[in-house]
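In the laboratory, one determines a bound structure by crystallizing the protein with its ligand and collecting diffraction data. In a computational setting the workflow is compressed into a single prediction: the sequence and the ligand go in, and a structural description comes out. We illustrate the idea with zinc ion.
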Amino acid sequence: MPEGELSPEGVYLDDQSGWYPVTAEEIRGFRLAVSAPDGWQVLSAGRRDEAPDAITWHSDRPQQALYLVGGPYHRHHRREGNLTLSVWLLHDDPALARRYLAPMGEYIRHYSELIGPYPYAKFAVVENRWPTGLGMPSFTLLGSQVLRLPFIPYTSLPHEILHNWWGNGVWVDYRKGNWSEGLTAYLADHWMKERQGKGVEYRLRALQRYSNFAARGDDMPLLSFVSRHDDASQSVGYSKSLMFFHMLRRRLGDEAFDAGLRRLWREYRFRRIGFQRAVEALVGDRPEVLRDFLPWLERTGAPRLDVTEVSSTPAPPGHRLAFVLSQSGTEPYTLEVPVAVTLSDGQVHRDQVRLERARQRFTLSLPSRPLRLRIDPEYDLLRYLDPSEQPPVLSLLFGGKTWLVLPTSAPDQEKAAWERLARAWQRRYPNL
Ligand SMILES: [Zn+2]
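The predicted complex, in structure-token form:
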């Protein structure tokens, strides 16, 4: 994607294009009048008004940047209350437009209720000639191919809509850590799966990506994440970060966490803040929670959990289960560790233990004989996975230095196919 484009195919201008004077003053609002060639549509943030000789876009919300996107678009739209929802396509496809228009209103309603009222008069999904997935204030630019993938209305769409609150609403101070991707991924991508009952699988995959890509020397503190540029940085800025917010929600409880989201929005919308300030706003007046969670922002790595010295003894009328839980690889964190014990009568006893040191002994009183002990069975903790917890996935190989051995005596055509595959992998995974 270029920093600016003015061509017969279309226009794209942003804050890097130098198309408006940039001063130290923040943009408190704007009004933009554009006349475009016949058959073209132009778009910016905010509200659209049509005059005989020009289209205007305007907003009284502060902006970090001004955008202008234009081209031979086909515009589809519908109203929902005071809101205009629209889809802008370069290659017209009314059925595709309907697939986006249908769920948009629901997402905006959900986040408005969860966090605070949506700050704009419209939201638009805009087809882009370049392969992007970008969230701008009140619109998103999705590449032509991405836009046509069947799952995007249920994955990228809620994510980009939520960036109107996190990232484009409360702004990110990149020198102090980009908190917005993790929080957005947690409240959009994870939420979409969680409400289908697939939260556990989603978190397992997040921990897999983090364990396989970051753990081999590319990990970094959450405060150091600016933006994704490869699998390792993505696994920190998205996967590790969303697991951090998941732990925080479990610790605070849903009600206090949701109140924290509203506080973050109320206190900091259209202001620039770093990771710590965002966490402080979410946590509110709970210094003991901050004390346990702030170390995650500054430290590299995550704990590996191990359980040893497991024993069970009859303690009428039930049984007593003892075990030692240890965390290694980092300075000890305070972790509320969920445990699940399968009992001889088939019941599952769920509990939680508080691990504060590198190694700690716990005992549980159980109503009957324990058969199986599982630690963090629903992947609620930010940690490096044990290899035994992972189904075989390619990221297990590609996260670190790996040799590929190709069949040199294979027929020429087959050999060429292997080499093509190897080169394609090599482009994506530099350690191969
Ligand atoms: Zn994002």
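The CA atoms of residues 100 and 153 lie 6 Å apart. Keep in mind that any predicted model is a hypothesis to be tested, not a measurement.
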